[in-house]
Amino acid sequence: MAEFIIKDEDLTGIKGKVVIVTGSSSGIGLATVNLLLSLGASVVGGDINPPSATSSTESPEFLFVQTNVTSWADLSNLFKQAKERHQRIDYVFANAGIGPRADYLSLATDENGELKEPSHEVLDINLKSVVNTASLAVHYLKQQSEGGSIVLMGSSTGLQPLRAPDYSTAKHGVLGFGRGYARLVEAAGLPIRINTLMPCWTTTSILPNMDGLMKGISHEAQTGLVVARCTAHLMVDASKHGNVIYIADGKYKEIEKAVLWPAYESIKGEGNPSDDDVLKRIFELAQ
């Protein structure tokens, strides 16, 4: 795997940039907000609830916009507020997420005794809102000649079987969306970079009493700052596009070009075109 390090000097390009962060009031989102502000960025954060007051979030360079990421109107308003305040948007972090919710083994019943559909709350927040946030980001970023950068919050759980299928499905979906969307904007010639994070266990509020749970099983989760630093790095490093970054134990490994694509190449066999190559030819024929 292509492991890399992130030095403080690698993040200086954040200064003066305008960044939107969803899920900005806790966990990785809040850690990212605090880091970006410390590096001199202007940050517009969207979340259901405002963050607790800190020296960082009380900065005039931070704007909180109450946002339910499952609402297209709320997400649209978040971007409008950012553009109106700063006249531009440079980077977007589609980060909002929640922990597992659905019970696929024991279906609940309604007041009439009829079986209820399993909850899709995790899919709406962890996947659909990421897709919508990224789509809005491209709409705004492509209006600027220099474009910008989008970072998507996936998870290492999108790389493996997980006994929380709703969460796993959402994160597998983010991985697929990020890989495909990066290829799409590249094919369209847009000056926009899209990268996907795949962190393993990190101190967040995804699970209740997470610190206590980690201590109870003698497992040490990495801090949100570890992921925040990678987020900032992907925003400013112009060489990073279409990357998938696995983050574990405070270490960063690029796995799209080092693992995922080479694995597919070996599976499809030498001389066979990729599905994307075939799709490209279909599109060209249809023109």
TrEMBL record:
GO terms for molecular function: oxidoreductase activity. Coiled coil: none annotated. Keywords: Oxidoreductase. It holds the Pfam family adh_short. InterPro entries: NAD(P)-bd_dom_sf, SDR_fam. The keyword Oxidoreductase applies. It comes from the Eukaryota. Belongs to the short-chain dehydrogenases/reductases (SDR) family. This is 15-hydroxyprostaglandin dehydrogenase.
